[in-house]
Structure formats: C-alpha cells, structure tokens
Amino acid sequence: MLAAGAETYRIEDTINRMIRSRDVDGPEIFVIPTGIIITYRVDGQEYTKLQRTKTKGIDLEIIKSANEFSRYFTAHPITLEEALVELKKIEGAPQFNKYLTAFASAVGGGFFVPMLGGTMIEMFMAYIGSWTILATTARLQTNPFIKNFLGGMVAATSGVLCVWIASLFGVDASVNKVIIGPLMLLVPGLPLIAGIRDLISGELVAGSARITEAMFIFIAIAFGVGIVLQASILRGIL
Amino acid sequence: MTYDVQYWFGQAFYSFFAIVGFCFLFNSPRRLILSTSLTGMTAWLISLVLSALEASFILPSFVGCFFIGIVAEILAQKKKHPVLLFTVPAIVPFVPGYGIYYMMLHIIEKNFDKAIRHGVESIFIAISIAVGIMLATSLMRILQPKSRSLFRR
C-alpha cells in the first residue's frame, strides 16, 4: 500500500486495526515513505518489526484490494498462511492490458494541451510524446531520478522533433505546449500534494520526505528537458 | 480569450478525457472511472468559472479541490472504497505542471524573476489543492454522524 502511494495515516490506521483484531496488545506504528516500524506486545514480551519499502508509483487498484483485504482480515479468523496467499494475489495483478494502458494514459497526456489552449495538431503531437514516454521509460527498472531524467529527455526530444517536422510542412506549433502535455505524466504533483497534506496533519517526517522526493523528481525532469531544449536552441532548430 | 458555449463544452470534454486517461495510468478500478472523471470535470468547470470571474489564482483551485474532496467523501461512503481512489485522478487537472515547466524554461533562459514567479505560483497552487481536500475531509468527518442518519432516511 505504501509503495502504491497511499496516505500515511491510512496505512497506520489499517495496520492498527489488523493487529488489534488478533488479540495483540499495544501496537505502535510509525510510517514514513521509506519504511514501516511496528512494535507490538505478546504475553508481556515486546517485538519490533522494521520493513523497508520502495515507492513504485501510484497504483489505485492495489490500494483498493489491500483495503478490502484488511476489512476481510479483521472480520474473519483466517490463518496467516491464507492471508499471505491473498496478499501475493494482490501484488501481481495488472488490471489492464499493457497496450491499452499506454494508449489510454497517452490520451490523458494529449488532452492536457487543448485544456491549456493548444490546437488540435499540438494535441496530436503531445499524444505521440506521451506514448513515447510510456513505451520507453515507464517500465524501466532504475532509480526514480534516472527514470525521470530520461523521461524528460524523451518528452522534450519528441516535442522538438514533432514541431520541427511540422514546420517543414509549414504548420506552426508551439513547442512549450507540446512538451507540457507529456510532462504532466511525469510531474510529481501527487507526491507534492500528499507531502503538504502530511505536513498539515502533523506528520512532519513523512511530509518532508515526500516533498523532498517530489523536489528531486522535478529536478530530474528539469535537467532532462533542459538539456534537450538547450541543445536544440544551439542547433538552431527552434 | 473568449468565453462562449463552445469554449465551455470543449473544456468539459478535454478535462473529462484527460482524467479518464490518468485513471488508466494510475490503474484505477474500472467501475470508478466514470464517477471520478465526472467529479473532476465538474470541479475543473467550477474553477474555470471562478477564474473567469476573478483573476486570483489560488481561489479557483481551492474551491475546485474542496468540491472534489466533498464529493469524494460522499462517494467513498456510498461505495465503501478509500477516498484516495476518487481524489487522486480527479485533482490531476489542477496539478501545476505548466507552472513547473515554465519555471524550468525561464531558468534555462536565465530569466530568474519569471522563474521565481512561476515557482511560487505553483507551490501556492499545490498548497491550496492540499488544503482544499484536507478541509473537505475534516468537514465530512465532523458532519459524518449527521450525514449517515440523513442517508438512512
């Protein structure tokens, strides 16, 4: 759940309910975006468990099924082995087919352009850019900084190329708008908002960690786009 | 910019499909896509009306996200899913991606005044989104006993 981008307080609440349903005393839970610490007491003996996590990106389906599972777990006396089998099922279940996901998400990136006042041609170019990002970098297994850096570079490159090719045919298009659409798929808006939300509700450590994550993703994207834009300005394409 | 019928319909159409696309990106459960997108579309239209009336940049996104928060709480109670499933795709149009992009562009052009302007604007929009949703959630928590009895009748 944490890796799929759920809120901090919801995770603490869920774990608390699940532990309390099994006659375990005094659970204390501390959740930050990079790990979970749980302390609990059985027969007067204290146990502590620390679980490291890595963020994978937002996946609402996992949050939904984990929530349903926790309800089921608290209401029914199932054994731990059965619970583990259920959890494994939640983890590896892509809901949509890969191509459909890429196609539809690229629609999301493309439709941002007319929302900001772009033309239909610019929308089509943004669609191509979004699709290229999803096809190349979305499933990459590196750290988030490199991933977003490459994503920004791909977005800017496809934007610049599309506008350049269109200008050969005498069609005008604004590079800025073409690049913004695909970038909306990468921009860390949600970690930023989730972080501010955590800060407001008093989760200072979790909040600052999320905001720092968002800042670094942003810097990575800015580097990627910036390098390509600078290069294309120097080459005289723009 | 002209504000005729075509403009509003266009905005509704584009924001609806943008949110549908992001629902797929976030792997949102199939049955919730329609309601989430309609919520987000309505909120985006509300914020556009507000920004057409008044020039401030904080109020539209704040009111829009407040609306999203309240509708999402009601939907979450009815359908028994976490609120997050409704809010996350719906707030996507409000996320200040263009502000961040222009900030970066102006940094490349060494135009730091404009860069700071766009950056501060984006940060305040992000804060207003977060506060809008927080406020809606806390309000619904306070009103929850009352609203439950209201639904029962």
Structure description:
The complex is a heterodimer of chains A (238) and B (153). Chain A has helices at 8-20, 60-75, 80-91, 98-115, 120-136, 144-168, 175-186, 189-200, 204-235, and strands spanning 25-32, 35-42, 45-52. Chain A is elongated. Chain A is mainly alpha-helical. Helix content of chain A is 66%, strand content 10%. In chain A, helix 5 (120-136) runs antiparallel to helix 6. A three-stranded antiparallel beta sheet of chain A has the order 1-2-3. Chain B has 153 residues and is an all-alpha fold. Chain B contains six helices and no strands. In chain B, helix 1 packs across helix 2 (33-53), helix 3 runs antiparallel to helix 4 (84-90) and helix 3 (58-79) packs parallel to helix 6 (112-152). Chain B is globular, with a radius of gyration of 17 Å. Classes of the chains: A mainly alpha (238), B mainly alpha (153). Chains A and B meet through helix 2, helix 4, helix 7, helix 8 and helix 9 of A and helix 1, helix 4, helix 5 and helix 6 of B.
Estimate the helix proportion of chain A, in percent: 55-70%
How many distinct beta strands of chain A? Answer: 3
Q: Let me know the average pLDDT of chain A.
A: 75
Q: From the structure provided, what is the oligomeric state, counting identical versus distinct chains?
A: heterodimer
| Cα radius of gyration of chain B in angstroms | 17 Å
Distance between the termini of chain B: 47 Å
| Helix/strand class of chain B | mainly alpha
- Summarize the main sheet of chain A: 3 strands, antiparallel
Helix content, binned percent of chain B: over 70%
Q: What string, H for helix and E for strand, traces the elements of chain B in order?
A: HHHHHH
| Uncertain regions spanning at least 5 consecutive residues of chain A | none
- Tell me about the biggest sheet of chain B? none
- Strand proportion of chain A, as a percent range, falls in 5-15%
Q: CA-to-CA gap between the ends of chain A?
A: 44 Å
Structure classification of chain A: mainly alpha
